[in-house]
Fold:
Amino acid sequence: MRQCRIAPSILSADFARLGQEVSDVIAGGADWIHFDVMDNHYVPNLTVGPLVLKAIRSYSTVPVDVHLMVEPVDELVPAFAKAGADIITFHCEASRHVDRTLQLIRDHGLKAGLVFNPATPLTYLDYELDRLDVVLLMSVNPGFGGQSFIESTMEKIAQVRRRLDRYEAETGRRIVLEVDGGIKPSNIAKVAAAGADTFVAGSAVFGAGSAEGYAQVISQMKAAVAQLD
Ligand code: DX5
Ligand code: ZN
Structure:
């Protein structure tokens, strides 16, 4: 069966009830919690830091996927590791030494991932696959929830899928292919068909407004992907 991990982005959650929101999406079938960190420098928005991660960490029984939209990156890695991150991803352009940053994340015992904006070339993958646990392709420009899926990402997903499949055949190691931005029940199947296995969804999940609604959207998404089998 095709892998389908749903990672609700808490960016669209009710921040006054964040712990409960995390519990609710997990009860509704979330596989990861996606934690968006924005610094009003690398991206034009400001969100949350390690303090908030630490506060919600005990509510999560699933891995917390910290998406750093910050520049520089390295100073924040130990702080997010300490606060309870399981996975840390960062943007290629935000680190002067991508290889060093990937190693730093792994040195803290976490899974490491590189994030590609819609216009970022995939050449960053050429020498780093051995250090990567996750490739995260942005299907919107980072900074805000609720934007529309950028279609040119489809070709990129397919290209990365081919590359990761080749790598797995050679090494036996499987790297996660995650897509972030504008994913909803009506388009998740095509994103999965192109080769993604992990799907961030913020407004689609939390826009449903209640714990029952979250569960419904997550199961609709999983059903849409399962139909491809
Ligand atoms: C965008 C963030 C996304 C965002 C996704 O910069 O990285 O994770 O929350 O939100 P939706 O699913 O609403 O596009
Ligand atoms: Zn994100």
